[in-house]
């Protein structure tokens, strides 16, 4: 997860009712889920900003407030930043649709373009002499004479 998306996720985690006992994310937000997501963020300043503001911008249940430290230490062992996007998808739907979803699409498109560019760079280009005969017999003769360097070249010219 890049810093732009991590910051957007942290900014959207406000006005949530946070419970202690972890239930499925689509039912309620738990401290453990939130800490697991936060510890997955690699940028220390973004992570610490949210850690300092959990109590400030959200409503914690009595049990979650009591077990805050334990949930924090357990979350460190199971870090995954993508939990934050899932929390937002279920508990701050408008923010998810307006901010997070376009960022996810942008990141996906960038990764896809980079992957295509890397594949294109890895392809070796062979020039084909259009005056060369292309019959199977001619190709077999060249292959038996060792004029092709490898099988890929043979297939590429086939």
Structural class: mainly alpha
- Whole-number total of structural domains: 2
N-to-C span: 43 Å
Proportion in β-strands = under 5%
The main sheet comes to: 3 strands, parallel
- Helix count from the secondary structure assignment: 9
Specify Rg, calculated over alpha carbons: 27 Å
Strand order of the largest sheet: 2-1-3
Order of helices and strands: HEEHHEHHHHHH
Number of strands: 3
Low-confidence sequence ranges: none
**Average pLDDT number:** 84
Anisotropy-based shape: elongated
* Helix coverage percent: 55-70%
Overview of the structural elements:
With 158 residues, the protein is mainly alpha-helical. The protein has two domains: 3-122, no CATH class; 124-158, no CATH class. Helices cover 66% and strands 4% of the residues. The protein has helices at residues 3-12, 31-39, 44-57, 62-66, 68-77, 82-91, 93-122, 136-144, 151-157; strands at residues 17-19, 29-30, 59-60. Strands 2-1-3 form a three-stranded parallel beta sheet. Helix 2 packs across helix 6. The longest helix has 30 residues, at 93-122. It is elongated. The two termini are 43 Å apart. The model has no long low-confidence stretch (mean pLDDT 84).
């Amino acid at each position: 997860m890049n810093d732009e998306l991590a910051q957007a996720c942290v900014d959207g985690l406000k006005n949530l009712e946070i419970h202690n006992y972890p239930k499925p994310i689509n039912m309620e937000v738990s401290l453990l889920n939130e800490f697991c997501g936060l510890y997955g963020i690699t940028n220390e300043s973004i992570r610490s900003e949210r850690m300092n503001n959990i109590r400030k911008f959200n409503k914690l249940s009595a049990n979650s407030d009591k077990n805050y430290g334990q949930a924090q230490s357990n979350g460190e062992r199971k870090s995954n930043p993508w939990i934050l996007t899932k929390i937002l998808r279920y508990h701050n739907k408008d923010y998810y649709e307006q901010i997070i979803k376009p960022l996810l699409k942008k990141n996906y498109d960038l990764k896809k373009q980079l992957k295509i560019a890397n594949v294109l760079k890895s392809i070796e280009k062979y020039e084909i002499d259009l005056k060369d005969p292309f019959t199977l017999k001619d190709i077999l003769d060249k292959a038996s004479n060792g004029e092709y360097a490898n099988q890929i070249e043979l297939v590429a010219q086939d």
